[in-house]
Write a structure and sequence with these properties.
Elements: E1 20-21, H1 25-38, H2 56-66, H3 75-82, H4 86-98, E2 102-106, E3 120-125, H5 127-133, E4 135-138, E5 145-149, H6 154-165, H7 178-194, H8 248-262, H9 271-277, H10 279-283, H11 288-295, H12 307-314, H13 318-321, H14 325-337, H15 339-350, H16 359-369, H17 395-410, H18 415-424, H19 426-433, H20 435-445
Antiparallel strand pairs: 1-3, 2-3, 4-5
Length: 456
């Protein structure tokens, strides 16, 4: 018998999780449907309010999370997508964390004077799911991957796959039982008024001496005028294919997101505020490269304390100075050929290495980079009993370091392993992270220059 699913709040982090990271949203939804149907999870309701069970509403929120990469949803985004209240969304996110299906990668922050940061989650598959279905895995820590499935769990896995392929939609409000009865009664009354007696026949063309009301006559069309069932409809249904075209507001937000990713001094700006500043620029058909080329016409700023205000001042006369698309295209080409653009492209590789933001990860990287004295196997009797033994990372520290490296690799950021390879060499990197992860990272960085991993 499987134990009850419950992960305490202190263990709802990726480094503390006992599960494994789901390879994609589809396989994660299989685990979500298994938790929903197994009954092993019951919400811890400390008060009288809150969800009573892991039901369709929780599955519907999980479907929204399965489509995000990285999984960094804002509460406002989920409220807008599901139609639930803010408190309800927080309740169901907490239930997914307690069930072991979500784990914190970075917890959201609200710092005064800075943009609010949403929490980033890792989609997890609980250990109980692997045990119940007989899933065989390889690897260590949260980076374990599925390698096989027991014969007894194949039928259940197929049923979960069918559920994961369907979408759970919002329930429609039930209509009142009085409305159909009233409509049926009205239809019955109208049918009684327009009913035709069996004794009534069509009036002959030559007329008749019988007096029959025109309301009671019925005429039938000839068989030559009836539809054969093979002709096309006069108004064929249009089938829409492909992605829906963005409207004006969507283009503004898209342009704002691209600029925040590409312009260094806009890294902490809020996307809605930048989209509002770029409304005239986006409506005029500007691209991110054209905006960057226009910003390059001025002096490069040093420190920008308020990116939105600085951007509004720079773009105040942009549409008047560059009104035509041909001129903007020539300006973009000139910017790409300039030496400043070349320097900006190589600035990331020429600058200093940026340490991780997490304090625990920085400590682990510092321990990995610390020089260690070589150990030699001395003959018996020559080993000094009073000599201090070099400090070697313990098994738990290596396991935590490998879990963090696997998580970074799954998110498309193998910088930690690459830095270790450059600093200590392949042998030391395999000793720290394992041969499997080092082999995958070396294969990834040896690909073509057209490959893009993760996000910038």
């Amino acid at each position: 018998m499987l134990p009850v699913l419950f992960v305490p709040e202190a263990s709802q982090w990726l480094s503390m999780s006992a599960g494994r990271i789901a390879s994609d949203g589809y396989s994660w939804m299989q685990a979500v449907h298994w938790v929903a149907g197994s009954g092993l999870y019951k919400p811890r309701r400390h008060r009288s309010h809150g969800p009573r069970s892991f039901g369709p509403t929780t599955v519907r929120i999980a479907q929204e999370l399965a489509q995000l990469f990285p999984c960094r949803p804002g509460i406002d985004y989920l409220v807008r997508r599901t139609g639930l209240s803010e408190r309800s969304v927080e309740y169901h996110l907490g239930m997914l964390r307690e069930a072991g299906l979500l784990a914190y990668v970075v917890r959201g922050t609200r710092v005064r004077g800075a943009a609010a940061q949403a929490s980033e989650f890792a989609r997890m598959v609980p250990v109980e799911f692997d045990v119940a279905l007989g899933v065989r895995t390889a690897g260590e820590g949260t980076g374990r991957r599925m390698t096989g499935l027991a014969e007894a769990g194949r039928k259940l896995m197929a049923a979960l796959a069918k559920k994961a392929s369907r979408k759970v939609r919002k329930r429609q409000a039930k209509s009142s039982s009085k409305a159909p009865a009233r409509g049926a009664r009205k239809g019955a009354d109208q049918g009684a008024l327009t009913a035709v007696s069996d004794k009534v026949r069509c009036t002959p063309m030559g007329g008749s001496s019988r007096s029959v009301s025109s309301a009671g006559t019925t005429s039938f069309p000839s068989e030559s005028k009836l539809a054969s069932g093979q002709s096309d409809s006069p108004t064929p249904k249009k089938v829409k294919r492909g992605r829906r075209k963005r409207n004006a507001v969507g283009r503004r937000f898209q342009l704002a997101s691209e600029l925040i990713r590409q312009v260094p001094w806009m890294g902490r700006a809020a996307v809605p505020r930048i989209a509002w500043i770029l409304k005239d620029i986006a409506d005029a058909g500007w691209t991110a490269d054209e905006v960057i080329a226009f910003l390059d016409c001025g002096d490069a700023p040093g420190t920008v304390h308020r990116p939105s205000g600085f951007l509004a001042g720079r773009l105040k006369t942009a549409t008047a100075q560059w009104p035509h698309a041909e001129g903007r295209a020539r300006a973009v080409q000139a910017y790409r050929d300039s030496r400043r653009a070349e320097k900006a492209r190589h600035q990331e590789w020429e600058g200093d290495w940026t340490p991780p933001r997490s304090e625990s990860v920085r400590r682990l990287v510092a321990d990995a980079f610390a020089p260690q004295q070589p150990q030699y196997d001395l003959p018996g009797g020559q080993q000094d009993a009073g000599e201090a033994i070099p400090d070697v990372p313990g098994e738990e520290e290596l396991k935590e370091l490998r879990a963090v490296a696997w998580q970074e690799f799954m998110l498309g950021r193998p910088d930690q392993v690459v830095t270790t390879l450059d600093a200590l060499g392949p042998a030391a990197a395999e000793q720290i992270y394992g041969a499997d992860l080092v082999r995958r990272v070396r294969k990834l960085i040896s690909g073509t220059s057209l490959m893009t991993v993760g996000r910038r």
